[in-house]
Amino acid sequence: KKIDMCPSWGDPMMHPDIFNISDYFLKNISEKKWYRITTNGSMRDEEFWFKFGSLAHKHPTKKFLVTFDVDGINQEMHEVYRQNTYLNKILNNMDTLSNTKTRIYTQTLIWKHNEDYLDEIEKLCVEHGSIRHNVMATDRFENTKELKFTKTDGTEEVLRKTGETFE
């Protein structure tokens, strides 16, 4: 019933032929199926996103949607998990895509650092064209309650799962 390009360790929008791949899928799926790409949305320019959204005009009877990952109300909050992505660029790309017939969804992974801001994150997403917003916990790090990592600037950071108490 669907073609769903949902990344775990890479973003499909980074593929140099994603436009042609998407055009092929939309051309060849039945009208009862839908095609979705999930992305951090922080790559490529607004010209690309408008052209990409034009695929919905080219294939008007097909269901085409893009889900953007937004994990904060500002850059500092967003990049705790989404390293090397830029919230303002994502929001601008969503604005550009919203000028096409492509459906825009958004999703937020719940972490300790953003759990008190989920309503504000959803409101921000809707302001930039999202027609559906999902919130979910990640299962990416199995039973780990916290994940220690090194940021790109070399500082140590800890990412904490929600619902846990830490001292």
Structure class: alpha/beta
Number of helices: 5
- Total strands: the figure is 7
For the largest beta-sheet, the strand count, sense and barrel status come to: 5 strands, parallel
Helicity level, as a percent range?
25-40%
Spatial separation of the terminal alpha carbons: 46 Å
The shape is: elongated
Mean of residue pLDDT? 90
H/E series, N to C? EHEHEHHEHEEE
Q: Which blocks of ≥5 consecutive residues have pLDDT under 50?
A: none
Strand order of the largest sheet: 1-2-3-4-5
Q: How would you describe what is shown here?
A:
It is a single chain. By secondary structure, this protein is of the alpha/beta class. It is 29% helix and 23% strand. The protein is built from five helices and seven strands. The strands form two sheets. The chain has a five-stranded parallel β-sheet, with helices on one face. The protein has a two-stranded antiparallel ribbon with strand order 6-7. Helix 1 links the parallel strand 1 and strand 2.
